[in-house]
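Weekend entry, working from home. Most of the wet-lab plans are on hold until the incubator is repaired, so I used the time to fold the two sequences that have been sitting in the queue since the last round of cloning. Logging both here for the record. First:
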Amino acid sequence: MEVITLGNETLRIKAAPVPEVTDEIRSLIREMFIVMEKADGVGLAAPQIGLSIRLFVLKADDGIERAFINPQIIQTSPETCSYEEGCLSVPKVWEKVIRPEKITVQALNERGRPFTLEADGLLARIIQHEYDHLDGILFIDRIDPAKKAKAEEKFLKKASKKDA
């Protein structure tokens, strides 16, 4: 299992719901945590490993590993904040992104049980970032178009040097 990067079509597709939480899904979640940790990430969505399903994992600054299956952000605060984001699928590119400060999300956990979570700070930001992946949106899509073009160019330049 490896993280795919900008240019791979799977990153731009709206992911399909997970039909059922099975042992296979639980095993996938465990593997995703391992891949995320090895890559020094704080979150990882299934589309980032080439699977177009509505699932992501994260570990925020509270140190708790969380899995979100078929999540839905049901509420966002009107207050926003800016924070520098990066992404395992767009390596070595960092840009400030404005997002709601607080959110409420509903999802299934790895046991298939529904839960609702109110989040703020880094946890809210990671959830929104990973949730975007499920809709085919990358963090660079949320920045100024000129900065986005520059970020894509920077990434593609680094990628072509790596392949050379």
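Second, folded right after the first finished:
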Amino acid sequence: MTALASIDSFLSPKKLAIIGASRNPKKFGRHVYDALKEKGFTVYGVNPNAENLNGDPCYRDIASLPADIDRVFIVTAPEKTAENVRMALDKGIKNIWIQRRSDTDEALELLKDTDVNLIYNQCILMYAAPVKGPHKFHRFLNKVFGKYPK
């Protein structure tokens, strides 16, 4: 299980790239982008098919992100996750969060034996404060049933 300290470390700068930020506001990648922005995060959308998201510039891939981006949240189709992990490693990114259902054995294997702060099998919206709505309730349930990181 991911330690809470790793999650807090990932979220503390409140600045990250969202790989798989969708143009479609009904898709989860876009929901995360909008929700984190609303919570005060500086977010950088990455989507090869979008030039901007709500007027903010959108980047084609991880390699084109500004040099000071050291955290990526991956919320892509599973078949694209390993490729994005490779790009993040090539760029020297040391903080990677792979959204539940985006993770694959291949992607996790690439991160094995690295010094990357890896978070997976967790929903970022259960931890990015302030936590509201169904994510707050889901977090409560995880605490009750001992599934919340310590």
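Plan for Monday: verify the second prediction. The chain has five helices and seven strands.
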